[in-house]
Here is the input.
Amino acid sequence: MLVLDLHTASNNPAHLRRTISEYGLGAQQWVFTIGVLLLALGSAATLVAAVRSGLARASSVAAGAMVLWTVGLVAVVAVPKQDWSNDATLGLGGAIHRLGAAVAFVSIPVAVIAFALPWIRDVRWRVWARVVLGLAALSVLSLAPIVYALVVGMTTSTPWYRAVTLGYVERLLVVAEVIALIALAFWVRVRGFAHVHENA
Here is the structure.
């Protein structure tokens, strides 16, 4: 996404006002698709490693939310975006795309918070838990503009996707969520090494 944004901004900065999913409709579709699928794959690998290291159980809220995040990412790629401003063009595909994006955006903060909370007072892992929890809190705050837009859409005649500059908001949210996910992945890696040494 960063590469696409830098390339696009150099030619047409106003394009950044559009949603990230629009990259899935143009000439850069393959870059967008590969990037999102790699993120989904990395998330799945992080989940597997977290369960193996004992950071969370496979049946936990954290694991379930991480699965939803991963499935949401795949849905965003599998079903292209449709024009929200034209209800006549919206079909099942558009609904799936929107649902996938919504599930992904909401699920990853829930997952990261659920991973961190049980360890917040643990002597050994509390620093990692608090850092990850803090980053997850930032990603939750990044959801606030979208919540505001939805409220405006429900209470006024302004469509929710016009209440805020959605492209900017999405980019802020994605950056915050990916940073939280990266921090979680580093924690899982460190804990995995510790788990191996303890069982050696």
